Amino acid sequence: MTPTAIATRGDRIQRTLEHLRHGSTDTVDQVVPFGPGQYTDPELAQRERELVFGRVPSIVAHASELPEPNDFITLTMPRNRVIVARQADGSVKAFVNVCRHRGAMLEEQASGRCRLFSCGYHRWSYNIDGSLRAITRENTFGEVDRSQHGLIELPAQERHGLIWMVDRAGAPIDVAAWLGPEMDEILAGYKLGELTAFHSEGFDEPANWKLMQDAFVDNYHIQYAHPNTAGKHIHTNVQTVEDFGRHARMVSPRKAIDRWLEEDPGETDLGPYVTEGHYLLPNSTLLRQPDDHFELLTFRPQPADPGRCRMEMRLLVPPLEASGMTPERYERVWEKNWSILLSVLHEEDFPLLRSSQDGLASADAGGMLLGHNEVVNQIFHRELSKLLEA
Ligand code: FES
Ligand SMILES: [Fe+2]
Question: 102 CB under 6 A from ligand 1?
Fold first, then answer.
């Protein structure tokens, strides 16, 4: 069965070791049926845009991607094209990336630094805080109430070194409340704000965002889909899961832990022998690796097509100054790490998920199942349906 919380990391790992000894894993009561429409239905996709992404906070960046005032990034959320910009006071604001004159896309760059956003169509310009700064040929254009024609602001908040937003103008945002006390405390403990995004990259994939999210909380596929990579290092179908009622934390043992199957680990810190995953409703997985670097995986629906999404992957590591490494070694270590991640994605997960999406589009694909052992997938789908019902 799946516990709601386990007090210490040692206890979590101990429980995982017991599973390994007994060939067991955490489970949930039910086998849950689902239909392929989960991943293909445009009406469901529409409800997800409104009731999930238009209502609850999701992660859009790590703070180190826009460290200084006037730094910005742009992205496509399910409901809006968005600019996120660091303000003069250090806070972040998000805006709809659309000019208020006649709707041209305002900023085309993926990221950059600028004091004003200037529209390519008739050169209206906006300050970094979204206010309308200048109207070209104003004497002939006519009078405009500038206070009413700034960029449309979207709710954004920085917490635990991550930038979160709700994709609906005027919606409230409270990331701490959304995380709940357990996950808020867990993320606070990681001090993710002191890390830096060594790499951050997005991939537009022809697969539903949930199909992708499902694969990155799944400890059941490892040895089958990744026999020569992850399957060599991580045990398959052995997981300790804490279900916090919205988000979840899962411990997956690495194969190096096997030496402690016979031998009593006593007081030995077994942290280096596990990967701790965190599923953050609605669309992220945060992986804590043995040496306390993190991988953050985020899955966002493409606005119009339920069969497409954008995955973003971020490698969060200590900055060079805090790493104790020479610059050369630092580059070498993290570049290598990143390239391994990329090759598993491109050569193993993506082909599998693209073909799953193709298969699921079959008219008579039939009913599917999530098993007792697919605990985090079940939590993900359970919590998502709660949001969609409300
Ligand atoms: S549409 Fe932007 S200035 Fe005209
Ligand atoms: Fe995988």
Answer: yes
pLDDT (average), residues 130-142: 97
In this structure, how many other beta carbons lie within 10 angstroms of the beta carbon of residue 368?
A: 13
Ligand 1, atom 1: nearest CA belongs to which residue?
102
Across the range 340-345, mean pLDDT stands at 97
What is the chain's mean pLDDT, rounded?
97
Strands, DSSP E only, in the chain?
32-34, 58-62, 71-76, 81-86, 92-96, 111-113, 116-118, 125-127, 132-134, 153-154, 156-159, 162-165, 196-205, 240-243, 248-253, 274-280, 284-288, 294-301, 309-317, 368-370
| CATH superfamily of this structure's domain 58-159 | Rieske [2Fe-2S] iron-sulphur domain (2.102.10.10)
Q: What is the mean pLDDT of residues 288-315?
A: 96
- What is the model's pTM? 0.97
Decide whether any atom of ligand 1 lies within 6 Å of the 101 Cβ.
Answer: yes
Phi-psi region of 151 (alpha: psi -120 to 50; beta: other; left: phi over 0): beta
Q: What is the pLDDT of residue 291?
A: 86
CATH class of 9-56+174-389: alpha beta
Pocket flag, ligand 1, residue 122 (CB < 6 Å): yes
Average pLDDT over residues 133-144: 96
Residue-range domain boundaries for the chain: 9-56+174-389, 58-159
Closest ligand, as measured to the CA of 132:
1
Residues whose Cβ atom is located within 5 A of ion ligand 2? 349
Q: Each residue of 173-198: pLDDT tens digit?
A: 999 999 999 999 999 999 999 999 99
Residue with CA closest to ligand 1 atom 4? 122
Strand, coil or helix: what is 62? strand
The stretch 365-385 carries a mean pLDDT of 98
